[in-house]
Amino acid sequence: MSDNQEIIPWVNKLSIMETVSRFALHADNREWEELQRLFTEDVQLDYTSLTGGEPATIPAKVLMDSWRTALTPLKTQHLISNHVIDFENEQQATCHAYFQAQHELPNPFGGSQWTLGGKYRFRLVKQEAHWIIAELTMTAVWAAGNQNIMNLGK
Asked: How far is CA 2 from the centre of its chain?
């Protein structure tokens, strides 16, 4: 195996970690256009562990509009760690990671903070030398604080 063949998987892993890190950064900075570019045109989304219902495939633009409405009134910080990346082939990979998402909205109806912890599963595809998100599954494991702040800012 040549040196390049040994390096390529690591370069791809770093690129995937960069995409996942930018996912959190752009959401927290309200950089919706940049965030949308990290997704395929249609994305399979599964937040059912928190919201119920069924997983759905939706346009990335609709997802951004939903997140813009939900997150803009809040202060947020999304921390993502412990990335474990498996390649299905040279063009597809899955990244499993832990997250902690902190949300804050001062309000007269209870605590101002809600923190959610859990796991993400990103399925990514390589397009034009960039890894982008085709599927996102969020599994809530624990929460603390006032979840109702998510509804107060709307």
From this structure: 35
Enumerate the H helices of the chain as residue ranges. Answer: 3-28, 32-36, 48-51, 60-71, 149-152
Q: How far apart are the first and last CA of the chain?
A: 55
Q: What is the mean pLDDT of residues 119-126?
A: 98
- Quickly state the pLDDT bin for 38 (edges 50, 70, 90): very high
Range of the domain at 79: 3-152
Long-range contacts of 112-116 (CB under 8 A, 24+ apart): 112/146, 112/149, 113/145, 113/146, 113/149, 114/143, 114/144, 114/145, 114/146, 114/147, 114/148, 114/149, 114/150, 115/143, 115/144, 115/145, 116/50, 116/140, 116/142, 116/143
Q: What's 115's domain CATH number?
A: 3.10.450.50
Q: Look at the chain and report how many structural domains it folds into.
A: 1
- Find, among 83, 80, 42, 79, the residue nearest to 63 by Cα: 42
Q: Quick one: pLDDT band at residue 2, thresholds 50, 70, 90?
A: low
Residues 154/70, Cβ–Cβ less than 8 Å:
yes
pLDDT at residue 3, rounded to an integer: 63
- DSSP assignments along 104-119, one per residue: E---TTS-SEEEEEEE
